[in-house]
Specification:
- By secondary structure, the protein is an alpha+beta fold.
- The protein contains six helices and eight strands, in the order E-E-H-H-H-E-E-E-H-E-H-E-E-H.
């Protein structure tokens, strides 16, 4: 079996990544109004996030401030997902579980307003993040995870070309007190060229 030479990846830093449909830019308090309008009160948006739905602008602002504080501590690198056609932020996404020494990172804590589900927004946002992770940061593994009951998210992750690895049972407590099993997916650097071609073809097909 052949092994590639070990090389330490770069730790993700705030940056701007631009495609044809979306721009990912460092998340900031100035995005709050757009984010609240996109999905701050929608229960379905927050159904699978392991925290209560914000419901008010102030509570969404609190969640945003908490995320930015965690980013300062190095736990996340958060991005606002800005739709180029409309000009406003329609959700956020992050790099998390960052381990540059082991060349791995997770794309997670992602949400979009429901008007942008099953559109080019998620496909291109993931393409931008994966390209940055593998081709600029030198990561060898990018993982994604979701609630075992969130079949829509599992299907979306599978469409990226990610491989379903398994399930961590009783992994995270939901806001209602029930326990979630978490499904893990990943893409390895050796699998990235095929996944990249698949994502590019999906975007080209509209």
């Amino acid at each position: 079996m052949a092994y590639r030479a070990a090389m330490t990846a770069k730790t993700p830093q705030p940056t701007t990544l631009t495609g044809r449909h979306v721009r990912l830019e460092p998340l900031a308090p100035s995005h709050l109004d757009d984010l609240f309008a996109a999905g701050g009160t929608d229960e379905e948006v927050w159904r699978w996030v392991p925290r209560p739905a914000p419901r008010t602008r102030e509570k969404l602002g609190g969640a945003l401030d908490e995320l930015l504080a965690d980013a300062e501590r190095g736990r996340y690198v958060p991005f606002a997902v800005v739709e180029l056609g409309g000009g406003g932020a329609v959700g956020w996404t992050t790099f998390m579980d960052i381990d540059a020494g082991n060349e791995r990172v997770e794309i997670g804590y992602t949400w979009y307003g429901p008007a942008h589900w099953r559109t080019a927004v998620n496909t291109e946002a993931k393409l931008l993040l994966l390209t940055h992770a593998f081709e600029e940061l030198g990561m060898g593994r990018v993982q994604l995870k979701t609630d075992h009951l969130n079949h829509r998210s599992q299907a979306a992750i599978a469409r990226l070309g990610a491989h379903r690895e398994g399930v961590l049972r009783r992994h995270v407590q939901r806001p209602d007190g029930s326990w979630r099993d978490t499904v893990y997916f990943s893409i390895l650097v050796e699998e990235w060229p095929e996944a990249r071609a698949r994502l590019a073809a999906r975007l080209a097909a509209g």
